[in-house]
Amino acid sequence: MSAFPDIETLTDAQSLLHYGRDWTRFWTPAPERVVFPRSTDDVVALVRWAGSSDRRLVPSGGRTGLSGGAVAPGGEVVVSLEKMRRQIELDAVEPSLTVEAGMPVGEVQRTAREAGLFYPVDWAAAGSSQVGGSIATNAGGIRVLRYGMTRQWVRGLVVVDGRGQVLRLNRGLVKNNSGPDLGQLMIGSEGVLGIITEATLALTRPPPTQSVLLLAFADLAALMPALAALQKALSLSAFEFFDRRSVARVEAHTGSSFPLAERADFHAVVEFDDPDGACTDAALQAFEALVEAGHVTDGILSQSEAQAAELWRWREAITESIAPATPYKNDLSVRVSRVPGFLGALEALIARHYPEFEVVWFGHIGDGNLHMNILCPEAMDVADFRAACDGLSPRVFALVREYQGSISAEHGVGLLKRDYLHYSRDAAEIDALRGLKALFDPEGLLNPGKLLA
Ligand SMILES: Cc1cc2nc3c(=O)[nH]c(=O)nc-3n(C[C@H](O)[C@H](O)[C@H](O)COP(=O)(O)OP(=O)(O)OC[C@H]3O[C@@H](n4cnc5c(N)ncnc54)[C@H](O)[C@@H]3O)c2cc1C
Q: What's the gap in Å between 221 CA and the centre of ligand 1?
C-alpha cells in the first residue's frame, strides 16, 4: 500500500457535506475525505494511491450537476479540481484557450470576451460549473441551436485514466484523422473513464448584437410552425420554451411581474442576430404573420440589451425558482419535430397516473430537449415523493423509447438515471460502454456506480 501523497485534504464534517454532493438532494453525502490536487502529477499520484489502498475516487467540479454524478455517498475520496484553475495559453490566431480543468466556465467566457473573442456554450450555472465538469457532462444550454454542445468546442484534453496513465488527447489540433478520437470518448463520460486535468477549448468571434422576442403561443401545436417560420426569417441563436407554471414560479421567486398581458399555456424566448436593429423589421413581420396564422397570441420585442436580459430572466430563473420544491427532474430529448406529440403524451400520462403532482415544463425546444420537473407537494415527505417518482420513471422512459428519444438530453446519467440507461441505449451499446470502462479503469477506481450500474 503506497503512502497518501502530499496533497491538501479536508475531513471536517462541513467540508464532507459541501464537497460530497451536487445540486441533487436525494443522496446523503458520506465521503471519507476531500482532496485538492494542484497538478496532473498530483492526480496521477492520487489514482495510484487509490489503487493500492482500496479507495474509490469521485471527480468533482463545480458540483452544479443535476444527476448525482459528483455525489459521494459511500466513503469515496472526492477529488476537487478547484485548485487547478490556471490559464495555460490563449491563442488568438486559432483561436483557442488552454486551461486547467478547475477553471469555472464563466471565467473562460470572461477571458474570451476580454480578448475580443467568444466562448458560446452557456447556461444558468456556467458561472460555477468548471471546464472539467462541463466536458465530463458535455453541457449544452441555451445556444445549442446555433453553437452545438460542449463537445463541439473541445480541441484537446489531458486526462488521467483509472490506470494512472496520462492521456494527451488531440493536443489542440483542428484536424487529426490519425484514427478514432479518444478525446470524444471522454466527453460526456461523467468521470467514470478518467479525470480531466486540462482542456483546450476553441473560441469564436462574438456574435452581433442580439434581440429577444418573448412570445405567447395559442397552443402546443403552434410551437413547431413558429420555430420553422422564425428560423426562416431570422438568424436564431436560441428558442427556449416554458409553460404557465414556470412563469408563476419565477414570479413568486423573483417578485417580478410577467411583461405580457396574455398569460398562455406555453411561451418562448427567441434570440436572434440584430446588428444595429437591421433585423427588427423582419422580426416584426414574422411575428405578425404568426399572429395572423393563429399560432402566437401576444409578444414583446426587446428594445435594448438591458430589456433583452430582462426577458431572458423568465427562462433562466426557472431552475432556481423551483429548487426549493425539491424537483424530480427529467431531462429528455426526442427529434425536434416530435416534441409536441411527445409532450402531449407525457402530460396525458402524468395526469392519468399522478394527478396530484405539479409538473413544470421548460426546455431547449429548438434542440428537441424538454425539462420535465415534478415538484414535491409541500405536505409530502421527500423520501415518499422520491419513491412515487421512481414509480413514474419507467412509464416516462417507456414513452421515451417509443419516441426513440434519450433519457438524458444534457444533464447526464449519474446516479439518477443509471438504472434506466437501457431505455435509450441498446444492450450492444451498453456492453461496449462496459468494455471502455474495463479498458480505462480496470479496477473500477473512478466514480463507482455512476452511469453504469
Ligand atoms: C441552475 C442550473 C441550470 C443548469 N442548466 C443546464 C443546462 O442548461 N444545460 C446543461 O447541460 N446543464 C445544465 N445544468 C447542469 C450542470 O450545470 C452541468 O451538468 C455542468 O456541466 C456540470 O459542471 P460541474 O463542474 O458543476 O460538474 P459537477 O457537478 O461537479 O460534476 C458533474 C460530473 O462530471 C464529473 N466531473 C467533474 N469534474 C471532472 C473532471 N475534471 N474530470 C472528470 N470528470 C469530472 C463528476 O464526477 C460528475 O459525474 C444546470 C445546473 C444548474 C444548477
A: 32
Helix (H) or strand (E) segment spanning residue 231: helix 223-233
Indicate whether 119 and 146 sit together in one domain. yes
Whole-model pTM: value is: 0.93
Q: Whose CA is nearest to atom 28 of ligand 1?
A: 63
> What's the rounded Cα separation, in Å, for the pair 202 and 112?
10
CA angle 252, 256, 257 (to 5 degrees): 100
Q: Please indicate whether residue 363, judged by its CB atom, sits closer than 6 Å to ligand 1.
A: no
The predicted pLDDT at position 240 comes to 94
d(CA 169, CA 131): 16
What is the domain count for the chain? 3
Instruction: Determine contact, residues 77/31, Cβ cutoff 8 Å.
Output: yes
| Domain-ending residue, one of 270, 292, 319 | 319
Q: Ligand 1 centroid vs 188 CA: distance in angstroms? A: 10
The pLDDT of residue 165 is 98
Q: Give every CB contact of residue 5 below 8 A, 6+ residues apart in sequence.
A: 42, 45, 46, 49
Closest ligand 1 atom to residue 130 Cα is: 25
User: Ligand 1 center to residue 446 CA distance, Å?
Assistant: 17
- Quick one: 28 and 112 in the same domain? yes
Alpha carbons 128 and 308: distance in angstroms, whole number: 23
Q: How high is the mean pLDDT in each 10-residue block of the chain (453 residues)?
A: 91 98 93 98 98 98 97 98 98 97 98 98 95 98 93 98 98 96 97 98 96 95 94 95 96 96 92 94 97 97 95 94 90 93 92 90 91 91 88 93 96 95 96 98 98 91
Return the DSSP state at 243: E
**Ligand 1, atom nearest to 66 Cα:** 15
Is there an atom of ligand 1 within 6 Å of 195 CB? yes
The CATH number given to whatever domain includes residue 179 is 3.30.465.10
Note whether 40 and 198 are within 8 A (CB): yes
190 and 298 belong to one structural domain: no
**34/147 same-domain check:** yes
Range of the domain at 394: 326-411
